[in-house]
Amino acid sequence: MISEAMIGKHRLKWIQTILVYIGFLLIWWITVDKTRFVSVRTFPSLSGVIASADKLVKYGYAGTSLASDVLSSLELLLASLIVASIFGTALGLLMGTSRKIYWLINPLFNLFRSISPIAWIPIAILWFGINPRAEGFIILYAAITPCIINTIVGVRSLDSSLTEYALVAGAGRWRRVKSVVIPGALPSIMTGIRLSLQISWMALVAAELVGSKAGIGHIMIIASRELQPNIVLIGMLLIALCAGVMDLGIRRLEAKFISW
Amino acid sequence: MVSKDIEAPRFPMASSGETELRPRTRGWRIAEIVGIGHLRWMLGEAVLSIAVFLLGWQLMVQYGVINDRFIPSPLQVLATLETLLSSPFAGNTIQSDALASLILFAIAYVAGLVAGLLLAVVIEFSIFGKAVIRRLVDLVRYVPPIAWVPFAILWFGTSILAPAFVIFMGSFSPIMLNALSGLQSVPQELIEYSETTGRNRARIISDVMLPASLGQLVAGMRIGSGVGWQSLIGAELIIGTTGLGYLIEQAQQNLDPQIMVGGMVAIGILGASIDVVFALVERYTHKVGITV
Fold first, then answer.
1. A189: DSSP letter
2. What is the Cβ-side half-sphere exposure of residue B224, based on CA atoms within 13 angstroms?
3. Average confidence (pLDDT) over A163-179
4. What rounded mean pLDDT belongs to chain A?
5. Taking CB atoms and an 8 Å cutoff, what residues of chain A touch B77?
6. Which of A96, A205, A210 sits opposite B237 (nearest CB)?
7. CA-CA distance, B71 to B257, in Å (whole number)?
8. Which of B 62-81 lie inside 8 A of A, CB atoms?
9. Chain B contacts of A239, Cβ < 8 Å?
10. How far does B58 lie from chain A, in Å, by closest CA?
11. CB 3.0 to 4.6 Å from B235: which of B162, B166, B189, B216, for a disulfide?
């Protein structure tokens, strides 16, 4: 149902986008590289970013190669996110389907939810030292919250006639959860995982900035201490790129899984 | 595998009689489930559950199951908080740290609010905004606010502006994105109708569109306050010279878990209070706001 006019409009938008970004690069180049309107010591310049990117790819920075830094960040994030979504969804299902468990856990959940994950960074470093386990703990702590909340919301907003029907049809508790509750709550669960992804990035970057031995955030904080604005910008672009691609991926997954 | 127990369904969603009167929006459902509407209930079961947790924690530390060099007991934390009220740690008492954090948060948050609102209006109502600013915003959308800390260090050094900038970035973007989607969700007929009443564009924005998108806007303000508070703690941890984030960072340098947990409790209480204020505002706007 896509008409030719719409394709034309779509293409026009793309051309517009590219033009805007080219214009942006041009203005950036003029204000920083050409006229030195702002100091290149604190502000990234176009030529500087290209040169730094080249160096970064070839030699790495702060003792590690760029690829290993990006990979270590991504690995940590994905591992923590997967664990968080499994446990978060399970806990959410328990809290959503059983009043007793909900009453038991929810007050504590709210208690811990009010302490932001970033405030746990110092004590995580005390517990685990400066290593990926501390960062993983922070990401896990941050990512599990949206999973739990959205799973509960998903379970609670199910059409009650469906579960009643399953009950009448003689399905046991586990059957009901497996074939009625989980499929019904899936859209909400996926939303939770997507929110978790966003929060995970925030937690990961914060943990890496405060104390880490590798990762994109590690590069950025060292670069800012050594007055390397170009490298800081490259770090930010890498984060935006990875986070954006992962978000798109989850959206795709969502659309594929939830086709009904 | 036919289960024999045919009793009343234990599933909570089966009993939805009383909630039917409330608006069935997502925000309300979350508020209901997470517990704002359950104040009475929270005083009963919640107190019990938390009391059991605290008691267990206290006993575990007291009898050495958990080493108090890693996790202090609740009573130790309470005692530490009391000492921190009168004797300064790292240059400040805890209430002056809390005040410093709150003031910084308030100023940067208001700046983020104003900028977010203005930008949302500019993006929605001007061609330049739609074509250019929108795309620049899209560019930095996936950057978590904390990632601005290195630039904040480069641009503002150790001055108070550095953490303020990070909070600003944190609160600004959810406010702007929510305001924008609020403005976009105002029905076209409403705008067309108000055009026929002879209002000019500025009046339409202020009289019709902003009130009509108030719900979304306030939701964005609440999210922005949460992200802003998180960003504040992160920024103070890394570049702070005062504030609660700086307090727990200094406690970490001194390997003092009691002050750390004390600081975390203070951060939690203040964060939750800010959220409760916004939740009340949200509730109020649901009552008075124009529902389209």
1. H
2. 30
3. 76
4. 87
5. none
6. A210
7. 6
8. 70
9. 142-144, 147
10. 15
11. B166
Q: How far apart are CA B137 and CA A22, in angstroms?
A: 15
CA atoms within 13 A on the CB side of B191: 14
ipTM above 0.95, yes or no: no
Given a cut of 60, is residue B198 above it in pLDDT? Answer: yes
Name residues 165-184 of chain B within 8 A of A (Cβ). none
Radius of gyration of chain A (CA): 23
Q: Decide: residue B4, CB within 10 A, 0-12 exposed, 13-18 middle, 19+ buried.
A: exposed
CB contact under 8 A, A172 and B3: yes
Q: Is B127 on the interface with A (CB under 8 A)?
A: no
Q: Which member of B132, B155, B267 has the closest CB to residue A116?
A: B267
Residue of B nearest to A205 (CA): B147
Residue A61 forms beta bridges with which residues? Answer: A64
- Of residues A167 and A2, more confidently modeled: A167
Which of residues 241 through 260 in chain B touch A, CB cutoff 8 A? 245, 248-249, 251-252, 255, 257, 260
Q: B89 in helix, strand or coil?
A: strand
Burial class of residue B130, CB neighbours in 10 A (0-12, 13-18, 19+): middle
Tell me, letter by letter, the H, E, C secondary structure of A126-190. Answer: HHHCCCHHHHHHHHHHHHHHHHHHHHHHHHHCCCHHHHHHHHHCCCCHHHHHHHHHHHHHHHHHH
Contacts A–B by Cβ distance under 8 A = 202
What are A188-243's pLDDT values in tens digits? 899 899 999 999 999 999 999 998 888 999 999 999 988 899 999 999 999 999 99
Can you list the pairs that B72-76 forms with residues at least 24 positions away whose Cβ atoms lie under 8 Å?
A: B72/B257, B72/B258, B72/B261, B76/B258
In angstroms, the CA B198 to CA B208 distance is 13
Contacts of A144 (CB under 8 A, 6+ apart): A84, A87, A88, A91, A196
Provide the sign of the torsion angle of the four alpha carbons A90, A93, A97, A101, taken in this order. Answer: positive
Q: Of the given ranges (A70-84, A106-120, A181-195, B16-30), which has the lowest mean pLDDT?
A: B16-30
In degrees and rounded to multiples of 5, residue A245 shows phi and psi of -65, -45
Q: For B235, which residue in chain A has the nearest alpha carbon?
A: A206
Chain B nearest CA to A244, separation (Å): 6
Closest chain A C-alpha to B288 CA, distance in angstroms: 26
* Residue listed under structure tokens 């051309």: A15
Query: Please, what's the b/e burial string for A119-151 (b: 16 or more CB within 10 A of its CB; e: otherwise)?
Result: bbbbbbbbeeeeebebbbbbbbbbbbbbbbbbb
What CA–CA distance (Å, rounded) separates A221 from B235?
12
Q: Partners of B89 in the beta sheet?
A: B92
Q: Which of B1, B2, B13 to mutate to test the interface with A (most CBs of A within 10 A)?
A: B13
| Residues in chain A within 8 Å Cβ distance of B266 | none
Residue B19 identity: T
For residue B173 the two structure tokens come to 């973007």
CA distance linking residue A54 with residue A44, whole number of Å: 15
Contact B264 A119 (CB under 8 A): yes
